[in-house]
Structure formats: structure tokens, C-alpha cells
């Protein structure tokens, strides 16, 4: 794994904000979040994206994009953490909580699978 950036973030505060909005609307459409990307910090506008017919209490999923539309974010938010993926320049960068650290996350590229980094569809 190649860590691009470690950053402070309160997933719990985000979860509380989401819970308040979820109590008022059927689908959340107006969450804004700023996260680091390989190109610097970016603001993403998120829309709730439920995987099933109904929202699962305590588990929220979102899709969103940066203002320039060049970076796509998928995000899962739970009471004590969040995780996600940013798609940028045909690469997937992942966001996960740093183990044993409070309010600290990392943006990283996964290690390539051996002998597959140069594979192409034929």
C-alpha cells in the first residue's frame, strides 16, 4: 500500500450531521465534505445512495463528485468510522481509518496485484 496522505477527520461528527438530516428527509442530497485528493483538498457534494429499498439505520452510503467533476467519491459512514474510494485519473484511491488512532484517516493506493499492473484488455 502506498499512503498518499494521512489527515485528521471526525467521522463521528459527520455521522451526527447525517443522522440529523436523515431524520428529516427520505434521501439526503446536500452533504458537503472536504477531503484530501492526490491533487489537493477538494470539496465533494454528496447524495445518499441506498443499496437496498430502505435506508439501513446507522449505515449510510453516498456518491458524489468534486466541483470540477474530475474526482468521483463513494463513501460509507457508520457511527464510529467512514471509508470510501476516490476515482481520479483512472486510479482508485481508498480512504480508511488509521488503526488505533482517534480521528485519523489515510488516503492510499493499494498495492498492485503481482503481474497484473500492465495487463490490458484484448
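Sequence proposed for the structure above (122 residues):
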Amino acid at each position: 500500500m502506498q499512503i498518499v496522505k494521512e489527515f485528521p477527520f471526525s467521522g463521528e461528527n459527520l455521522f451526527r450531521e447525517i443522522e440529523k438530516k436523515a431524520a428529516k428527509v427520505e434521501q439526503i442530497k446536500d452533504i458537503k465534505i472536504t477531503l484530501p485528493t492526490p491533487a489537493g483538498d477538494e470539496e465533494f457534494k454528496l447524495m445518499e445512495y441506498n443499496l437496498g429499498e430502505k435506508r439501513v439505520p446507522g449505515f449510510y452510503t453516498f456518491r458524489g463528485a468534486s466541483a470540477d467533476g474530475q474526482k468521483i467519491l463513494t463513501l460509507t459512514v457508520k457511527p464510529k468510522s467512514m471509508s470510501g474510494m476516490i476515482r481520479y485519473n483512472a486510479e482508485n484511491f481508498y480512504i480508511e481509518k488509521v488503526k488505533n488512532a482517534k480521528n485519523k484517516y489515510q488516503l492510499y493506493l493499494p498495492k498492485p496485484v503481482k503481474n497484473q499492473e500492465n495487463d490490458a484488455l484484448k
